[in-house]
Amino acid sequence: MHILVTGAAGRLGSKLVQLLTAQGHSVTGVDIVGENVIHADIGDFNAIRSLVHDKRPDFVLHPAGWTDVDGCAREPEKAIATNGFGTQNVALAAASLNLPVLYVSTNEVFDGKRSDPYREYDPTGPVNPYGYSKWVGEQAIQHINPRHFIVRTSWLFAHGGKNFIQAILGAVTAGKPLRVVTDEVANPTYNDDLADAITKLIQTERYGVYHLVNEGSVSRWTFARYILDRTGQSEVPIEKISIKEWQRASVPPTYAGLVNLAGAHAGIRLRPWQEAVDAFLDKEGLLKA
Predict the structure, then answer these.
(1) Superfamily, domain 2-159+187-215+257-271
(2) Among all residues, which ones are annotated catalytic?
(3) Most buried in the list 2, 17, 286, 288, measured by CB within 10 Å?
(4) pTM higher than 0.70, yes or no?
(5) Which residues are CB-contacts of 22 (< 8 A; sequence separation ≥ 6)?
């Protein structure tokens, strides 16, 4: 199968390219930066449509987007232009050739007012510009292309990129005191596990909405505590604070845990988040517990 991957220079996109190539697929990578990719902007409708018509892939994978949550809060119109209308451009280009498309979305399309995990078809209600922009992308995919997958994930951590694990360990190395919120809850998800699950999902042709996250919801504080404990730093204290005490441009949904029902029904499961974190730390040479 010939697969076109947007955001191919990013952490998830590059991992998808690696896995799909290893599986014997022909892959065309697209991004605005990076090497060994075609440089094109998803915000340019004519460029994306021309590229898809020129390459004639069998499938379009669309993990590209602006994932700087605080940046989106500061520039909400840019967020919608990239995550919303950029996704619309990809959806239209794929639909013009009747190609299936997979869009990577977020748990932040939910309002966070529940106390139990969100299922795939629960009502959405984003509370910040990032979540809203990704929700706009979901609407574009759903209304334009019937052959679609929408994959929601959360708290992604990847090798070589900026993420919560590296932020916590970096703060300890720098001797900074740790203050972490207890009332923001979601699923820590390993980039490699997500990429593997996506490559399995596109083979099913079972279109729809999926929550692909490592199993289990956890607070930021508990996540941070686990990271330190598993890297042999159990003695490092972490102050418990609330979201209101952590000043930032964006306000996240408080409880945005996801449960994987649709994927599990199709035989696709991701391991518990603790096992995923251990695998990440082990690969980084940091696992000591």
Answers:
(1) NAD(P)-binding Rossmann-like Domain (3.40.50.720)
(2) 130
(3) 17
(4) yes
(5) none
